Amino acid sequence: MPLLLLLGALSSKATTLPITFYTEKIKFTSLAKYTLEVPNDLDDVRLKAIADKWATQTEIQKVAKEIDSVSRQLDLCSWFRYQLIVKYVNQCFPKAKEKEQRVYEWYLLNKQGYDARINFGKKINVFARLEKAGDCRFLYVELEGKRFINLNNESLSEYFISRLSLNGKESVDFMLSDLRPPKITNCVLEERKVELTIEGNRETISYKINKTISLSYLDYPTSYKNLFDVALSKETEASLFPELCTKLLVQDTLESIRRLLTLVQKINTYEDDRTFYGHEKPMAPEEVLYYSHSDCEDRAALFYHLVKSFYGYPMVALSYPDHVNVAIELPHGNYKDVLSYKGRRYVVCEPTVITLSSELGHSQAYQKYKKAKVEIEFRGTSTTYNCSQNKP
Fold it and tell me: Per the domain annotation, does 177 fall within a domain?
């Protein structure tokens, strides 16, 4: 059903604004008739006057509700909800100055229930109060004992952050740990193939990857720790998982996990983020399957996700001074590299380095450092993808 219908009938007098959010065509109420001039001496008093005036404007309140409605329909996390706001503001006010656009973003983000702030100065950025445990790779400031992420991630020489909180104690945190694929339709899919040698035989794993979702994660402002549990899009899972069930996985669980390890090691070319992007760019599992390159934490995330999806074994993500890998609590067997943690025995697995083969319990990093830091702990679950119940 088109989102326009789900938003409810627009007033016959209201001007509509069609926007494209990834692949979704959405019609909002237009605010193009509104104008805003941000004074150079903007402060909390003037900012509150703007907010109070807009609180009486029916169409502005309607747009805020429309954004909330679309966000719920598409199941948007905090970051994508903000991206929807940015898209709306940029399209509705294309000729407005950047600082004026940012004030609109600030107000509409507050209307979504967040504690959003802006800075006062020549260049305005939008800030939002982070969840307590949110791992952030964007710039942020400490304010009132809380962390506020700079959603524009721009370095500001000096600035003063607004103390005005429109929602007060009723505000909600901006979440970075809840990344999930938006429920958008008509996604662009691309073919991918991985060539493997299994027991001396060449095997080709073919699948369709959701390009739209993969590209949407490009600027997600978190570290790798929040990406291990990000689910694959339904389109990618529906294509990849049956292929793995048919061509890769067998009755022997340990052999199947070893094969998954081989798959991840050869999924694409190893390349450090800083070489490719110029900075750290942690990937969600979907992105690892899409791009032609990845590095250690990216492959660790994909391997972790696959083992969790098919077998649900307890696992830990491990970090070293220059590396990330995964260890699994396996039911039996003798292994070279084993980590003891909270009374459990975890077999260290290496999704990146293949010089020691793809055998379970072999890790150059673990052998080098003799210890590792547990960054993520998964205690196991019985909720897994069942090959026999999901035959293609």
Answer: no
Q: What secondary structure, in 3-state letters, does the chain show?
A: CCHHHHCCCCCCCCCEEEEEECCEEEEEECCCCCCCCCCCCCCHHHHHHHHHHHCCCHHHHHHHHHHHHHHHHCCCCHHHHHHHHHHHHHHHCCCCCHHHHHHHHHHHHHCCCECEEEEECCCCCEEEEECCCCCECCCEEEECCEEEEECCCCCCCCCEECCCCCCHHHCECECCCCCCCCCCCCCCEEEEEEEEEECCEEEEEEEEEEHHHHHHCCCCCECHHHCCCCCCCHHHHHHHHHHHHHHCCCCCHHHHHHHHHHHHHCCCEECCHHHHCCCCCCCCHHHHHHCCEECHHHHHHHHHHHHHHHCCCCEEEEEECCEEEEEECCCCCCCCCEEEECCEEEEEECCCCCCCCCCCCCCHHHHHHCCCEEEEEECCCCCCCCHHHCCC
pLDDT digits (tens, 9 = 90+) for 203-223: 999 999 999 999 999 999 988
Boundary of a domain, candidates 170, 204, 222: 170
Whole-model pTM?
A: 0.91
Position 126 in a domain: yes
Same-domain status, 37 and 88? yes
Does residue 183 fall inside a structural domain?
A: no
Whole domain around residue 149: which residue ranges? Answer: 3-170
